[in-house]
Amino acid sequence: TAAILLKDYRPSDYAIGRVHLDFQLHETETLVTATLSVRKRETTVAGTPLVLDGDELDLVSIALDSVSLGDEAYSATPQGLTVKTPPAAPFTLTIVTKLDPASNTKLMGLYRSSGVWCTQCEAEGFRRITYFLDRPDVLSVYDVRIEAPVAAAPVLLANGNPTTSGLVPDTDRHFAVWSDPHPKPSYLFALVAGDLGVVKDSFTTMSGRHVDLGVYVEHGNEERAVYAMDALKRSMRWDETAFGREYDLDVFNIVAVSDFNMGAMENKGLNVFNDKYVLANPDVATDQDYGGIEAVIAHEYFHNWTGNRITCRDWFQLCLKEGLTVFRDQEFTSDMRSRPVKRISDVRLLRSHQFPEDAGPLAHPVRPEKYMEISNFYTATVYEKGAEVIRALKVLIGDEAFKAGMDLYFDRHDGDAATIEQFVACFAEASGRDLSQFMLWYSQAGTPQLDIRDDYDGDNRTYRLTLSQSLGPTPEQSEKKPMVLPVRFGLVGPNGEDMLYETAKGAEVNGDVIVVDKAEQEIVFTGVASRPIPSILRNFSAPVRPILNMPIKDILFLMRHDSDPFNRWQSASTVAMYCLTASTEALRAGSSATIDGDYLAALAEIITDDALDPAFRALVLALPQEADIAREIGSNVDPDAIAGALRHARRTIGSKLGPTLDHLARFYHDEGAYSPDAESAGRRALANAAQDMRAASGNADVHARIMEKFGAATNMTDRLAALVSLVQNGASEAEQALGDFYEGYKSVPLVIDKWLAVQAARPGARTLDEVKRLTEHPAFSIRNPNRVRSLIGTFATANLPQFARADGAGFDFVADKVMRLDDINPQVAARILVSFRSWRNWEPVRQGLAEAALKRIAAKPNLSRDVRDIAERSLA
Ligand code: B3K
Ligand code: ZN
Asked: Over pLDDT 90: what percentage of the chain?
C-alpha cells in the first residue's frame, strides 16, 4: 500500500448531505441499510465514478434512486465500492451490508463488548459498517434507526436527539430513532445497544437550554459513575465560562465499555469510554484514576467544539482538534486543581512520552506530512506536543490576543473542516503578528535544544545572556530552520528574588518573555546590580531541551529559591539527574555510585517546607525514572547500570532522610473519610512518596509497617501505594501482599489491571517468567486491550531493565506477543511495538537483539498495516 501525502489532498468529487442508517442488530448477522443523499460537487465532471471506502465489508444489495444496480454499473470488494457512472443530478444510494459484530476483534466499526453492541469509527472505522466517503471533510446530517431484541438491548442510543421509539409488532424486538441536526463527519458516528444501568442528571446551559445527561454502565456499577457525572457537569460549565462554548443538543450521553482500544471517543452527543475513565469509588480507584476520569471526561466533552463543531479537513490536521483539546483539558484541570502541579505533571509526561518519540525513528512533525496508517499517528507528538505548541503561542502573543484568536476561530470556522493554517491565521489576525515562522512548530520534527550561556560585567553592571537553538535531523528532515521560541525568564538575585534591570537589547523582550527567533541571540541587560542566576524557560514556556552550562551550586540555588514553582521543581530534577547520570557512569566504570550532599540537604529542606503544597513536594521527591535517565544519557545505554544508580540513590535518600520521611508519611497520612479532591490527594501523594522512599532503605521494620498499612488501608490510593512499595523495594512481605490483593479484588477487572501492572514492573530477573505465567492466568485475556496494556504494555514500557534484558529474552517475549496480537487487534499490537523505538540508544549487544526481534516481526506473513508501519519505520 502506498503512503498518503498531505500535499495530495483534494476535496471529494461528491458530497453526501444526508445519511439514513437502519440497523437490524444481531450478534453475528447484523444488517445495515444506509441511504445516502449524494450530490456531485459543482467542479466535478459529470459521470466521474463515485468511489466509496470499505473495510472487510460484505455487500448484500445496492440501489440507486430505489432501482437495484446491475452488475455492470458498479464494482464492489470488501475494501471498496465504485458506482461507475453516477447521474449528474442528486441521487439516493441505498446500500445494504451484513456485519458480524461478535467476531470483530479489532474493536473498530461495530463490535460486541460484554454483550453490548457498540461502535468505534475514528479514524477509519465507519467504512467497516457501510461503504462511504469515510473522510473527515465529508459532513452529513444523520438519522439513525436501531432495532434490536428488547431483552438483550433495552437501551438503544445513537448521536443527536431521540425522536421516536417503540415495539416492533409481533416480534421480541423494539426500535429507537435518533436524529443529529449537526452535520458531522462519519468518524463521529456512534451507536450503543445493550442492557445497561444508568446515572441520570441534567444541566442548564448559559442560554437556558435544558440538557438531559446520562452515564451508562454495566448494571451494578451505577454508584461508580457518580464522579464521572460530576466531572461532566463541571466540564460543561467551565467551557462556558473559560471559552464561551455552550452545548448544542438536548441530550448528552456517555457509555462505559470494557473492551476499548484507547481512552475514550468524542462521538457527537454520545461519548463512548473505556470503563477505566468512568468507573470510580474510593475502594477501587486511586487519586490518579480520579484525576484521569476528570481529565478524559473533560477532554471528550471539549471536543464538542474543538473537533466536532469545527472538525479536521483531513487526518494530517489531527492536532487541530487533539492538540487544542489537550490544551483545553489541561487548562480545565489547572483551574480545578493546582496549576503548578498540573504543569509539572504535564511536562513530566511530555518528557517521558514525547521526547523519546521526537528523538527516535518514529519522530514526526506535530502535523505529519505522510502516513501509511493513520491509527499510528495518535501520538504524544500530535496530542501533547500539539498542546505545548498552542501554549507557546499563547505565551508569544499574550493572553488577550490568544483569547481574541480563539473567539475568531470559533466564529469563523464553526461548521468547517479546517486546517492548521486557518487556525493559526486567526491568531495572526488577532495579534497583528506574522506567524509564518511559528508554523515551523507544525512542520519540523524533533525537540529543539536551547543552549544558555551568560556573562556578568560588574564594572558596567551589564549582564549578557546568549541563547542559541539547534535542531537535529529527524526521519526525512535533515535541514532545519531556526524556530520562534518564547522563553520566559527571570534574573534571580542573591536574596532569591528576581532582580530589576534597566534595558534589554538584542532580542524582543516582552515583560518576562524573550522571543528567540534566530539560531543565536545575545541579550544584553543593563543596570544589573550584581551577578544574577538565570532562571530560564520558566513554566516550561516552549517544548525545548535547555542546556544550562551552569555550576551545580547555581542550580541548587534555584531549587531553593526560584519564585517560579516549575523551575524550582525543574532545578531539583536537574540536580537529581546530574547525580544519577554520574552514578551510572561510575558504576559502568567499575567504581561506585554517589549522591551529592548538598542535593540531599536541599531536598530535605523542600519536602519539609510546610508552606509548600504537599503535591508539589511529592513531585520534588519523585526521582527521574530509568527511561528518563536512559534518554538523558542518549547512547550506548546500559539499563542495568541505570537501575543500579537509581537503586543506590533511593536507598541513600531512604536511609539518610529516614526520620524526615517517617514523619511525612505519618503526618500526611489521613485517617478521615476519603475525598478525591486535589488537596487531599496531594497529602496522600506526599505521605506515600515519603513512605516509598523510606522503603527503599531496605529496613525490615519499615517494610512491616507498610504491610500493616496495606492491610488497614481504607482507600485504593493508599492500598496500591503500599503494595507498590513492598513489591518495588523487594520486601519479604511482597508475595503475601500480592496474594491478598488478588483475593480481595479478583472480581474487579480494573483493579486486577493494577495487580498485573505491579508485577510487570517488578525489578529482578524473575519478572519475565512471572509475566509469561500471568499471560496464562484466568484474569488475563489477550482480547482485552486494558489487560494487554497492563501486563505486556507495562512490562515493555515501565520496566526497562527487564524488557531490555541483556539476553534478549524480554524483546523476544514482547515480539511474540506483538505477532499474536497482530492477528487479533492490530492497533493494540502496534502500540505495544512502539516500546522498541529507542533501540538504537542501547549498548551494542542489546541493540543487536532488539533489531533481530524487530526484523522477526517485519518478516511475519500477513502482517497488518499498523504493525508493518511501526516495524519498518523503527528499522529504517
Ligand atoms: N479522538 C479519540 C481518539 C481516537 C483514536 C483512534 N485510533 C479520543 C480523543 O482523543 O479524544
Ligand atoms: Zn481527543
From this structure: 99
| Nine cell digits for residue 830 | 502496534
Closest ligand to the CA of 122: 1
Q: What is the pLDDT of residue 378?
A: 98
Q: Which three cell numbers stand for residue 388?
A: 505545548
| Ligand 1 closest atom vs CA 383 | 10
* Ligand 1 closest atom vs CA 375: 7
By annotation, the residues acting in catalysis are 300
Measured from the CB, is residue 262 less than 6 Å from ligand 1?
yes
- Pocket test residue of 265, 321, 827 for ligand 1, highest count of atoms within 8 A of CB: 265
DSSP assignment of 174-233: EEEEEEEEEEE-GGG--EEEE--EEEEEEEE-TT--EEEEEEEE-TT-GGGGHHHHHHHH
The sheet that has 74-77: what strands, in order across it?
50-53, 80-83, 74-77
Query: Which structural domains are found in the chain, ordered by start?
Result: 4-195 (2.60.40.1730), 746-876 (1.25.50.10)
Handedness of CA 306, 308, 313, 315 (dihedral sign): positive
Is residue 300 lining ligand 1, measured as CB closer than 6 Å? yes
Residues near ligand 2 ion, CB 5 Å cutoff: 322, 325
Whether ligand 1 lies within 6 angstroms of the CB of 375 is answered as: yes
CB neighbour list of residue 678: distance below 8 Å, 6 or more residues apart: 336, 337, 338, 341, 615
Instruction: Judge whether residue 51 has pLDDT over 80.
Output: yes
Distances, alpha carbon 762 to alpha carbons 391, 697, 769, in Å: 37, 17, 12
SS3 of residue 825 by DSSP:
coil
Q: What is the pLDDT of residue 266?
A: 99
